[in-house]
Amino acid sequence: MTHPVPITLRSPTTHTPSTGPSSSNIQPPSLEQLLGRWYITHTSSPAWRDKRNVELTFTSRASTSQPYPQIDDRINYQSLSSSKLQTVQGTDTPSQANTWAWTWRGNGWLKLVTSHWEILGHGQLQDHGQWIVVYAQKSVFTPAVINVYTRKKEGLPEALRKGIEAAVEEFGHQDLQALIRSLYSVLQN
């Protein structure tokens, strides 16, 4: 049996933690840590269930003195039954009140679509690279979800995944617990 790695996550701003450790001592990732390619390796989102090779790339829009300027985000993926690459693009605007939170707005015909998301925690593993846990609020088009991004396609070691699950369970909110219990692996090949 694999034992969970202890992980500290912050509760989403929409949920005041009813239990669990204080997360006030953790810091958001820097812009440099956030930029670049990530693989969505675990999610509770029904949108990725029939997809594979889901990758997200954050790119800085312009040089600026702001610690968190707007960033472009591009998601590439394939359906399970096709080799055709699909793309969704948008722009993320940082929250003025919460350095962990962003608002995504689609580009092109998705310009009317927005989604609010925030980072619950992040870390570095020697052999597995960086990871980030993201909570996205329910929107007009999508349910609330939890996503795990990693720098490597292989995803997370089981002990770290269990640690993330345990940390979310400790928040004591049934809706977050339901999301983390429905977390599944996204095929990366």
Q: Would you give an account of this structure?
A:
- Strands 1-2-3-4-5-6-7-8 form an 8-stranded antiparallel beta barrel.
- The mean pLDDT is 89.
- It is built from 3 helices and 9 strands, in the order H-E-E-E-E-E-E-E-E-H-H-E.
- The protein has 189 residues and is mainly β.
- Helix content is 13%, strand content 37%.
- It has helices at residues 31-34, 158-169, 174-181, and strands spanning 36-43, 51-60, 71-79, 86-94, 101-106, 114-125, 129-136, 145-150, 184-185.
- Helix share of residues? 10-25%
Strand content: 35-45%
Radius of gyration, whole Å: 16 Å
What is the mean pLDDT? Answer: 89
Secondary-structure element pattern, one letter each: HEEEEEEEEHHE
The 3D shape can be described as globular
Supply the helix-strand structural class. mainly beta
**Which quaternary structure do these chains form?**
single chain
* Major β-sheet profile: 8 strands, antiparallel, barrel
- Give the tally of β-strands: 9
Number of helices: 3
Q: What is the CA–CA distance across the termini?
A: 27 Å
Looking across the biggest beta sheet, what order are the strands in?
1-2-3-4-5-6-7-8
| Low-pLDDT runs | none
Q: Keywords, please?
A:
189 residues, mainly beta, 37% strand, globular
Question: In short, what is this structure?
Answer:
With 189 residues, the protein is mainly beta. The protein has helices at residues 31-34, 158-169, 174-181, and strands at residues 36-43, 51-60, 71-79, 86-94, 101-106, 114-125, 129-136, 145-150, 184-185.
Topology:
Elements: H1 31-34, E1 36-43, E2 51-60, E3 71-79, E4 86-94, E5 101-106, E6 114-125, E7 129-136, E8 145-150, H2 158-169, H3 174-181, E9 184-185
Antiparallel strand pairs: 1-2, 1-8, 1-9, 2-3, 3-4, 4-5, 5-6, 6-7, 7-8
